[in-house]
Amino acid sequence: MANQLLKGKKGIIFGALDERSIAWKTALRAVEEGAEIVLTNAPIALRMGKINELAALCNNAPVIPADATNVADLENLLQKSMEHFGGKMDFILHSIGMSPNVRKAIPYTDTNYDNFLKTLDISALSLHKVLQASMKLDALKEWSSVVALTYIAAQRTFPGYNDMAEAKALMEGIARSFGYHYGFAKKVRVNTVSQSPTITTAGSGVSGFDAFFTYADKMSPLGNATAEQCADYCLTLFSDYTKMVTMQNLFHDGGFSNTGVSQGIIEEMEKAAKANG
Questions:
Q1: How far is residue 113's CA from residue 134's CA, in Å, rounded to a whole number?
Q2: Deepest in the core among 62, 95, 105, 159, taking most CB within 10 A?
Q3: What are the tens digits of pLDDT across the range 36-47?
Q4: How confident is the model at residue 201 (pLDDT cuts 50, 70, 90)?
């Protein structure tokens, strides 16, 4: 049930591709909670995805193409969004990530470095560019909130995650560093949300995803957090109830990040050992 948590707030949602996207779910929930939004994605993603369907579901929200690695595109997006809203904004969701090495199934130890640099630019530096352009154009109100989606592979090794692990680690560092500067300058807060493995178009492309999804679900005391639950969590970070939360990497993973091993996993290992014994 909607509580109008974001009534009167205005913001930009990056990265909605299709109905499985966390950004898609967040856009729907933000509007349900009273927000007005602008949707954006890279031009190629706009052609591949269903963002116009989402726009229709979100009170005909404007769709403004922007390559998040291109500063001119971002400045155009911010300016047009402020024109649409008639002023500054209250929140931004950064839901952007792509690795050419992952897409091409290039092993981590055989990394193509041109691809690696693209991964870092798209998946991490894009957050810095969004924040820098926002500060330059004074596009965000005081006490606004910027949230970027990340994953625990920034802290722990998950082999199939490839060079996206480094990209997420860099992005989390940018959130802390820019959060310091933006906080002192404009009281803008910047946080990352480290979500459970989630069945999205991007997540499903990671090698061994299905097996790891099941493993994480068995490891987590509360199970894996869904895309819908992540959307709800992002909304709390856009709201005025979290005005003093900034520069944090917030785990939204059912307890996975603090669990060494679960009883369910131990029992499965014991069964496997007996079967092989």
A1: 30
A2: 95
A3: 999 999 998 888
A4: low
